[in-house]
Amino acid sequence: MANINTANVDSLVATATKTAVSVISAALDEDFNEQQLRELLEAELGVTIKEQVEQKQLLRKLQLAELDILVEVDKVCRKHNLRYYVVGGTLIGAVRHGGFIPWDDDIDISMPRPDFDKLMKIAKDELPEDLFMQTKGTDKGCYFYYAKLRRTGTYFGENKFEHTTLHKGIFIDIFPLDYVPDSPTLQKFFFKAFTCLIGMICSKSKTGEPLYKNSKMPFIWFFRIVQAILPKSFMLWMRVVLGKLANKMSQKNYLASLSGFHGFPQEVAPAKWWGDGVDIEFEGHTFRAPSEYHTLLTHMFGDYMELPPVNKRVCHSVNKDKIIFSGCTMEDYQPKIRRKHSHNYSVTKYVVEALYPAPETETK
């Protein structure tokens, strides 16, 4: 068992059971004796468990690479007295596990807008040279309302960005927190408006269509027409204007991550819950968390201390063929595929073509 101590026991048991049932079922139709069946099971399980262990080790290496980036951010924020907070799964991991959720593959932090804006200005001078602050102002084609801090020389291939010219290094996400009005109706309006703009921007960039999924056709066609008429630059400008308008209409009582993945109302919380922040332990380091992080996490996730079912403990992004920890150049970030929209409006679906297809081998 010493050779598999990095593997998740529940995952191993589930995988072993599934594989054993599959093999035994197949064996029922074959003339196997007991020894042959045992050898077949051992061979199949050995390969499967080895793959599980390698996946776990790769995930851990990715987590530590992301942790190194967070350590650098913490240094700069403490030096310049900038507020930041670990959030989402990173915060749950800190509270529940003292580090990463074992199957989590990213790090998220949030910053109040003034602190976020200042970090964007000083990042190039204050952070190590191999760290690149990716925003729509620093990377052509980038449309995020938030920022990604990436390590140059590494590669983290995400399917939705494979066709772009974006920097694709290993990263952490940095989300701005904006003030929003006290009225739940106005809060919902701003989130709806952001969702529409983000949907059209993503669709125009061929990186996803959250706006159209499960929508009715009149709604889809209306926004298709608007999207076709308006340039992406105008949509990006409108998104900034909406953020500023939300702040201007606010009474400074509520903060929201307008670009957050959970939407309204989970991404809206009283400003006092965030506060100046408190220290929290994460992977042997001390980082900053919201002042009332228990209340905030309960608001967003409910009983966050309860572990999800085994089949929900899934890491979707770790692929050994798409993660490189050193030696990459800017050429490696160039697009390798072309995405054409399939015009399937009810789901996110694309026609993908290889830009540099492998040469066909001659058959004799």
Domain module tally: 1
> Quick one: overall form?
globular
Number of strands: 13
Separate helix tally: 9
Distance between the termini: 49 Å
Helix percent band: 40-55%
Main beta sheet: strand number and arrangement?
7 strands, mixed
Radius of gyration: 23 Å
At a glance:
By secondary structure, the chain is α+β, with helices and mostly antiparallel strands. The chain has helices at residues 9-27, 34-79, 88-96, 113-126, 184-205, 217-229, 232-249, 271-274, 293-301; strands at residues 85-86, 108-112, 131-134, 147-151, 155-156, 170-180, 254-256, 268-270, 278-282, 285-289, 323-324, 337-341, 350-354. Helix 1 runs antiparallel to helix 2 and helix 5 (184-205) runs antiparallel to helix 7 (232-249).
Descriptive key words:
364 residues; alpha+beta; seven-stranded mixed β-sheet; two-stranded antiparallel sheet; 9 helices; disordered N terminus
Descriptive account of the structure:
The chain is α+β, with helices and mostly antiparallel strands. It has one domain (2-354). It contains nine helices and 13 strands. The strands form four sheets. Strands 1, 2, 3, 4, 6, 7 and 8 form a seven-stranded mixed β-sheet that branches. Strands 5-11 form a two-stranded antiparallel ribbon. Helix 1 (9-27) runs antiparallel to helix 2 (34-79) and helix 5 (184-205) packs antiparallel against helix 7. The longest helix has 46 residues, at 34-79. It is globular and about 75 Å long.
